[in-house]
Design a protein that fits this description.
It is built from 10 helices and 2 strands, in the order H-H-H-E-H-H-H-E-H-H-H-H. By secondary structure, the protein is mainly alpha-helical. The chain has a two-stranded antiparallel ribbon. Helix 9 packs across helix 10. The longest helix is centred in the last third of the chain and has 19 residues.
């Protein structure tokens, strides 16, 4: 329901227009916009109300992550394990999976890390499925599947081009750079930029600005990476 966004954030959509996934009149040349593209566009507007909102970024990130994990994930089984996985799957029903999930959640809430003891044939089959079936989430940022894919890509590059001859870790000090104050929407004194960098704000002030506007911190990091690759590494 697109109107739910206006009800959730009346200060962001005061006129009830511009919500996500709203119904459009295609006869007037309107085309739908992907949710991720529209969120990215709102976070890059000159108006920083989307950037500085306390809950907008987190709720939209969680919403997109839930959609990806629910509708775009898949289960995979190795070819050699297919027969065993099918045999175990035939012994499992919805009630068994629900019971096992509830027991595991309860043990985790109690910080009980002892092994789960299966009492029925269905529960033993459910534990067998955990060995054979793998949850594929390589399209989700930060997931185990994406990390495994990047690790395999690094191994392939090492086999093709050899091991790296230099290792470099970029760690820009955002709270000591006046660009962070500028990107977060605050004026800086360009006349004293090199003599006394950003004399108006202290490191604590810049950290406070970045905490209020995390998009500015992401833009600063992207700027530093681009400058390193384009200027120093060419």
């Amino acid at each position: 329901n697109p109107d739910a966004y206006a009800l959730l954030w009346p200060t962001l959509f005061p006129y009830g227009v511009g919500m996500f996934e709203a119904e459009l009149d295609r006869t007037k040349g309107c085309h739908p916009i992907h949710l991720k593209s529209q969120v990215s566009h709102y976070l890059q507007l000159a108006d920083s109300r989307f950037q500085t909102h306390l809950s907008f970024i987190f709720i939209m990130q969680n919403l997109m992550m839930v959609r990806r994990s629910s509708y775009q994930s898949r289960l995979a089984v190795r070819r050699g394990w297919w027969t065993k996985a099918m045999a175990a799957m035939a012994l499992v029903n919805d009630e068994t999976l629900k019971h096992v999930a509830e027991v595991l959640a309860t043990k985790k809430a109690r910080k009980d890390f002892s092994p789960f003891t299966a009492e029925t044939v269905g529960e033993r089959a459910a534990l067998e499925l955990l060995k054979y079936v793998e949850y594929c989430s390589d399209h989700i940022e930060g997931s185990t599947g994406e990390i495994r894919g990047m690790r395999n890509e690094i191994r392939a590059l090492c086999r093709d081009s050899g091991t790296p001859s230099i290792f470099f870790t970029l760690n820009p000090a955002d709270t000591y750079n006046p660009l962070c104050s500028f990107l977060s929407g605050h004026d800086i004194d360009l006349d004293t930029l090199f003599d006394k960098p950003d004399s108006t704000f202290s490191a604590f002030d810049r950290g406070r600005h970045l905490a209020a506007n995390p998009v500015a911190g992401a833009q600063f990091f992207q700027l530093m990476v681009d400058q390193l690759l384009n200027t120093f590494l060419g």
